[in-house]
Amino acid sequence: MCVDFVRTGAGKGAVAAVLAAFALAGAGCEERSALKRPAHGAGGGGETEVILCDGSTPGAVAAAATGQVLADSLMDQWKRAHPERDWVEVEKEQHELKPPADNSALLKGGQGPEHPYGRVTKQELLLWARETEKFVVEGSRIFHSAELLGSTVAVSCDMCHPHAANTHPETYPKYQTQLGRAVLLRDMIEWCIENPVRGAHLSGDDPRMRALEAYIIAQRSGTVMVYGKH
Amino acid sequence: MKIKHKSVETRYMEARREFFNGLARVDRRSFLKISAAAAGAAAASGLIPYHSFQPVAVAAEAQPAFKFAYISDSHLYEKHINDRFVRSLLRAVEDVNALDPQPDFVLYGGDLAQLGRPKELKLGAEILKGVKAPLRMMVGEHDWYLDLGAQWRELFGAPTYSFDHKGVHFVTLNSVVERDFWTARGLTPMQRMMTVAGLDNGVQSPFSVGAEQLEWLRNDLAGVAPTTPVVVFSHSPLYKLYKKWNFWTDDAEDVQALLARFANVTVIHGHTHQILTNRIGSIHFHGVLATAWPWPYAPEGLPELTIQMSRPDPFNPMDGCGNGEVHVHADGLVDKVYNLWNRAPIIVGRRYLVSNGKEAVPPAPNRISY
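Output (structure tokens, whole complex):
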């Protein structure tokens, strides 16, 4: 994204405006949706009308939806109605995430105005942090959602790996006896998606796989890498 | 019809149960004999599991006064949504029904349902009807936060109660009381439930026993002599381990203070899905296994006396799960038996805790949490 911005010659002001919009949206969704009538226990088909969390936007959910389907469908409707509000903050409030590294030291020093390499602005730092974090937060959302994982048994990763515990991204590549080969982190993610989670195969470059990987690695920030460790 | 063929799994379970029952009955010398025989039988049938037979703690030094069994944390969805969790609970019921002699009663440790829905709780109640011994129920947060206990109470009665059994005073608490975090946020009942159901969801509040139950407990214990052994059942550990996952009870110190005047107290708790051992003064704490899935150890705060179970094998969905028994001695302290489905059982004995971890040390894991 940073490269794009340089190539297209967009002014720095544009980036600043985008960042300001993000900051404004930071308040997130404090008021959640209120159901007009309960969606659980009904068992049958049909839809239940709901008022979304702003207290005014109408929405609807299938009466037979499971909890996660319900939650995700409400989230989607709310996002469509409020493209400006910040789902990142909502996710961060729920599932404590490690922040990306602090690069503010880069603002100091450099080799002078004649040496553009190494020149970094505050806006760029914000942009890097924001985009990186968003990638990780999206992974967290998927990790915590049976629906987004495509689970056929209503199971999500956090049920066995709260805060991504026991995922050990720092130990890959390593040999997995039951797979009969040395694998990468994404292969074990894939294995858990297909087995405990009973979801559909995700290819290595599927955006969901990439986001899951981003989240898992981010949660072990600061851990020493020791590949091959069991 | 007579069943001739027994599956590999059944034969393994039988061999292991024999080994396991033998343990409690015998003195050290015959213990070694049985251990060798059972290990030999298992080896001959090619049934050494992933974690091979290890001699568990040496046979108990004294016969327990009585035993009860436990099943916990089944997290049931309706069968058409997830049949694995249902099968696991059925397996646990089979296990405790096969115990010979039968336990005096069976404790259900909470989190029978995953999302507290009436159909989940009713399915659980129906399966638990199959337990032959009398059943004692405890509530968990997954059972509670959809309707704040309405369906659970209808099926199982009050969540807070006490009873006396063979000279021991038993108390069951609802330790998963959360502060109201939902009204101000305008959460629906299902959103509230989903929030509480996420172990790592930080929007919820810490668990507590609460003023009302503390008062009840004070009154309940008032007439009990300090020499009477006391056993407390709580879903969350009645101490502070790791707040972020609610391996935690916010007013634990208040409960401990009420228990402090008793010579021997044992707390048996669910929620943590793992082997967990702690001792605070005269209070001994034991976790129980889940039938649904095992949990990693918390990244900090693990009590010193805890000898971890080896990290679960992801390739076996039952590994790290199970059920177990509690052998209660005359003084109210217990040998806690973790009946791990995929491994040899592990006993965390009374002697281990009394000696502050010096004697009867359970086998150490080689794959600890990191």
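Helices of chain A lie at 2-8, 12-25, 67-81, 87-94, 122-143, 185-194, 207-219.
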